[in-house]
Amino acid sequence: MKLTLAPLEGVIDHLVRELLTGIGGFDLCITEFLRVTQSLQPERVFYKICPELHQGGRTKAGVPVRMQLLGQSPQYLSENANLAIELGSHGIDLNLGCPSKIVNTNKGGAVLLKEPETIYQIVSQMRKAIPKQHIFSVKIRLGWDEPTSVFEIADAIEQAGASELTIHARTKVDGYKAEQIKWHLINEVKQKQSIKIIANGEVWQRDDATQCRLLSGCDDLMIGRGVLAMPNLANVIKHDSVPLTYPELLTLLVEYSRYEIAGDKGQYYPNRIKQWMVYLKFQYPQIKTLFRELRIFQTTDPIVELLHREVQIHG
Ligand SMILES: Cc1cc2nc3c(=O)[nH]c(=O)nc-3n(C[C@H](O)[C@H](O)[C@H](O)COP(=O)(O)O)c2cc1C
């Protein structure tokens, strides 16, 4: 079984990737998306989203990182894809599932799911441009509002020559409603197509992973929010490890703050750690109390002080 750490824009940055892959269990990471419009982005933009490019495109634990692109211009997507590869990205992932309003107004994300023919054009031109030896994966939802659209979309992506397809088993309209997850539809796609498929969506616990693999028929999974809620979820799934204890989690958060402070990015750390805590609250009820105290702070120091206090109480 291979596990991929999902892209989560605004939450999983290179530091979180470093921490989470350091715990173990992951085989691949996908970056937050790089938005492609009508230009070739400067190299610094690639390094900002994926600083791992400075170290052979791998996290410190050695896990390969693949850059994700989002856009609609086959020409510029191809040019940016090739630069990412040249700089050391382990393949390219194309985001066709982003529900963000701004992105979709510019016809970049999930709105393309309404147009399988356009998807075919984009993916086939990118495939022709990206050297064959590099993996070109595509990430989709089941469709815009009709889950059975996935059959036509998946076929277009396979015909266009993509190497792998990750399916988040909900439509754009489903948003993140847990009860709308349809892992079984991935299995139906698998019956019709031969492209390698990775299942994604709503895996929070070991049992969810077992169920998702059973219903989707996929060996390989991509996991996102569940890992933020339980940072060693990959090992819990793969090796039946027990979830991190609360003191172990606190140590991890302190480590995160050390990394961030070394990076010195002003409000970046307070915002990111608050985003992360939104998910941690699902698995660690103690985080709720801590979050209530911490959310008023806009700077790093008082947050780190609180974390240290919490470590002393529970460590
Ligand atoms: C805050 C947030 C940011 C996300 N950013 C991205 C992104 O940049 N690219 C992408 O393809 N998917 C993005 N997604 C979707 C996730 O990668 C994933 O498909 C989705 O969360 C379902 O998987 P999960 O239930 O394991 O989290 C994002 C989701 C969330 C909640």
Key features?
single chain; about 325 residues; alpha/beta; TIM Barrel; Bacteriocin As-48, Chain A; 8 strands; about 50% helix; about 15% strand; binds flavin mononucleotide
Secondary structure tally, helices = 14
Compute the number of structural domains.
2
Q: How much is the average pLDDT?
A: 94
The CATH superfamily of the largest domain bears the name Aldolase class I
What is the quaternary state of this protein?
single chain
The assigned CATH architecture of the largest domain is Alpha-Beta Barrel
Q: Structural class of the helices, strands and pairings?
A: alpha/beta
Ions, cofactors and other ligands present here are: flavin mononucleotide
Q: Fill in the CATH topology of the largest domain.
A: TIM Barrel
> Any idea of the CATH class of the largest domain?
Alpha Beta
- Count the beta strands: 8
Which percent range describes the beta-strand content? 5-15%
Please state how the strands of the largest beta sheet are arranged side by side: 1-2-3-4-5-6-7-8
Low-confidence stretches: none
Summarize the helices and strands and which ones pair or pack.
Elements lengths: L2 E3 L8 H10 L4 E8 L7 H7 L15 E6 L3 H14 L4 E4 L5 H5 L10 H14 L6 E6 L8 H10 L4 E5 L14 H10 L3 E5 L5 H11 L4 E3 L1 H5 L3 H7 L6 H18 L4 H16 L2 H9 L5 H15 L1
Parallel strand pairs: 1-2, 1-8, 2-3, 3-4, 4-5, 5-6, 6-7, 7-8
Helix pairs in contact: 3-5, 5-6, 6-7, 7-8, 8-10, 11-14, 12-13
The site of flavin mononucleotide has 22 residues, from strand 2 and helix 9.
